[in-house]
Design brief:
It is a single chain. By secondary structure, the chain is mainly α. The chain is built from 3 helices and no strands. The protein starts with a helix and ends with a helix.
């Protein structure tokens, strides 16, 4: 459960800073989003995040993209 809160915090932080950061960092935002996708998938595979918990996180990432 702690992992999902950490992931939600990370997604929220990116959502807030994404517009300004995208102008300054260019493609680095895409690599960060990809890393978050991989972290969510790894959490599902390890069993620390359920598939139901991962679904809204993935949707938030899609919206950021």
């Amino acid at each position: 459960m702690k992992t999902i809160f950490m992931t939600l915090a990370a997604v929220s932080a990116i959502a807030i800073g994404a517009p300004a950061a995208a102008q300054n960092m260019g493609g680095n935002i895409q690599s960060r989003l990809q890393q978050l996708r991989l972290n969510i998938q790894a959490g599902v595979q390890r069993g620390t995040i359920t598939r139901q918990e991962a679904m809204p996180l993935r949707e938030q990432l899609r919206q950021l993209s």
